[in-house]
Design a protein that fits this description.
By secondary structure, the chain is of the alpha/beta class. The protein is built from 16 helices and 22 strands. Helices cover 31% and strands 22% of the residues. The strands form 4 sheets. It has a 15-stranded mixed sheet that branches. A 3-stranded mixed sheet has the order 20-19-22, with helices on one face. The longest helix has 19 residues.
Length: 569
């Protein structure tokens, strides 16, 4: 296990790392940045800001943020707190104004951390047959969301298919079912469809996300949820679930929303054995649940669990800075850049290296945010609207930091015209494509298209729409309160490679590094991709900051109602 070191040594190492990177020789032609494109309507100050973006400064930030000394930047852990203070210090050095609590750069996020202790036990008890005892981490991962140190569950199991109530799609898995006090067995994802009018076709909606499943079951009064893990449906393997849920899970403190006594995932084969012991076939059950007319049904089985939790209240922080707009009439409105700084920290009890450094996820996004902030701070003239730079905590815990920010912004949500978010930008060289999934839902999309064209970047659709990426990063928390928001990232095509190479890089990262200790900094990483994305985001943000009207959602979009309710024009 990694042993903490002193703050003095940490600061010394920071200086060494940053000096070594920023004082290096100029990039050779083979690593040179492409020229800054001409984007119609952008003033010289914006062009100068784009030109100042330095891929080696981004490298230096990633190298430091992903260093073992920051211990994986866990939420509520020492390394995460150091990362927040470091980002705040960088904002101050750039001369940005603090926009957190009480004139500081930090917005306190009250949280409670819960660790499921090793003494917890779980068993599935079919009416006929032997009990199926589940092994923690191998068969099941579970959390008592209520924050009680000790909980015993002895409850019937109800099969509820996808666990979705979506009136706009005429779909309700809960209709006629008695689920109060029960444990609900369900699938992740949503009914498959190619019809864009039915659960948005192949693109996953929020109804398919595990967060929705837990939230809805709790609203319905269920005692717990057993989510069936299937790699193709979750879009990641069991090891990702295990790694993400084996350490401390964090929740917003004093959140009035109902919580589950057991929020859990089980391996597919565990669910298959349970169905078999109940005289059923899981494949047939899952197939029937995907068809209209499905009805939930009680299973002749119970879940018996004894959950021991270590509960810890703590405060984490979002880091918030801003530069004031240049127009007296519009400076009370804002454009926002965001990226989460947290990762999984140190997970006790895991064999071997148990520091989850999170280099690509999401030191890259924070480095881009810092480099854009630096470029804005040096600009001789700023956009008409103000610009906010927000690095949030607890994204890996279920978007908790951005959820808190969205509910408690430093200015009203109706005054935030646009949020551009950065999450997991692969350092793979000069990109020839850009991903902006969700931008097409906003009135800003024509500007996104023209800017991408000027950059020579092809806009690609989400390469894995059934993974529901739009609902998995912090822009979603802003969208929920009405703010037009989307993430900006690279596609699959990079200069000097074919698309298959990029696709393979993405597959390898998900299979080997995503939410694994191996997501670490490597010297061969090529941060020109991150630099190009930073330039592209400056061009977008500057235009949004200068245009006459605020950005909006297209009429009828699922977030348009929230935008109108906020009072935005």
């Amino acid at each position: 296990m990694y042993k903490p070191v002193s703050i003095v040594l940490l600061i010394a190492l920071t200086s060494v790392l940053l000096f070594a990177q920023t004082s290096s020789a100029p990039a050779t032609p083979s690593t040179a940045m492409p020229p800054v494109p001409k984007v119609a309507g952008l003033p010289p100050a914006a062009e100068q800001a784009m030109a100042s973006i330095d891929s080696e400064k981004i490298r230096a930030e990633v190298k430091f943020l992903a260093h073992d000394l920051l211990e994986g930047r866990g939420t509520g852990q020492r390394g995460g707190d150091i990362a927040a203070e470091y980002i705040a210090t960088q904002f101050k050095l750039y001369g940005l104004k603090p926009a957190g609590d009480n004139g500081s750069y930090l917005q306190k996020v009250p949280m409670v951390g819960i660790i499921t202790e090793a003494g917890s036990t779980y068993a599935l008890l079919p009416a006929k047959g032997d009990p199926l005892v589940l092994k923690n981490r191998d068969d099941i991962v579970a959390m008592d969301e209520t924050g009680q140190p000790l909980t015993d569950i002895d409850a019937p199991i109800v099969w509820v298919g996808y666990g979705i109530d979506a009136p706009e799609y005429n779909w309700n898995d809960y209709k006629g079912a008695d689920v109060k006090g029960k444990v609900l067995l369900m699938m992740v994802n949503e009914p498959p469809s190619d019809d864009v009018k039915f659960f948005n076709g192949p693109a996953l909606t929020y109804y398919g996300r595990w967060t929705y499943k837990f939230e809805e079951a709790a609203r319905m009064g269920a005692a717990g949820v057993i989510l069936i893990h299937k790699t193709e449906m979750a879009s990641y393997g069991w090891d990702v679930v295990r790694n993400s849920w084996s350490g401390e899970r964090s929740y917003l403190r004093n959140d009035p929303a109902p919580k589950l006594k057991i929020a859990s995932w089980v391996q597919l084969e565990v669910a298959r054995k349970l169905a078999q012991d109940c005289g059923k076939n899981l494949d047939d059950m899952m197939s029937a649940a995907a068809k209209p007319g499905f009805k939930a049904e009680p299973l002749p089985a119970k879940l018996k669990a004894h959950i021991v939790s270590k509960v810890r209240p703590f405060d984490s922080n979002n880091v918030v800075a801003m530069v004031a707009g240049s127009d007296p009439k519009l400076k009370d409105q804002a454009v926002m850049y965001s990226a989460h700084y947290d990762h999984l920290g140190i997970v006790p009890g895991m064999p071997g290296d148990n520091i989850y450094n999170g280099a690509q996820d999401n030191a890259t996004g924070v480095a881009i945010l810092l480099e854009i902030a630096r470029a804005y701070s040096d600009a001789k003239q700023l956009p008409r609207r103000s610009t906010y730079f927000v690095s949030v905590t607890a994204e890996e815990q279920g978007l908790r930091g951005s959820e808190f920010f969205g509910k408690n912004p430093p200015l009203a949500a109706k005054q935030i015209s646009l949020d551009l978010n950065f999450d997991d930008i692969p350092p793979l060289g000069v990109p020839e494509e850009v991903g902006v999934s969700g931008a097409e839902r906003t009135t800003f999309y024509p500007t996104v298209e023209s800017t991408a064209k000027a950059f020579g970047l092809a806009i690609i659709p989400d390469p894995n729409p059934n993974a529901g990426h739009y609902y998995r990063s912090d822009h979603f928390s802003l969208a929920r309160v009405g703010v037009p928001a989307f993430s900006v990232g690279s596609g699959m095509l990079y200069q000097g490679h074919d698309r298959q190479w990029g696709i393979q890089q993405a597959k390898d990262f998900v299979a080997k590094d995503y939410h694994h200790p191996s997501d670490e900094y490597h010297p061969e990483m090529d941060f020109r991709s991150d630099a190009v994305i930073a330039r592209f985001a400056i061009a977008l943000g500057w235009q949004a900051g200068n245009q006459a009207n605020e950005v909006g959602w297209k009429s009828g979009d699922e977030f348009d109602k929230a935008r109108k309710a906020s009072g935005a024009q």
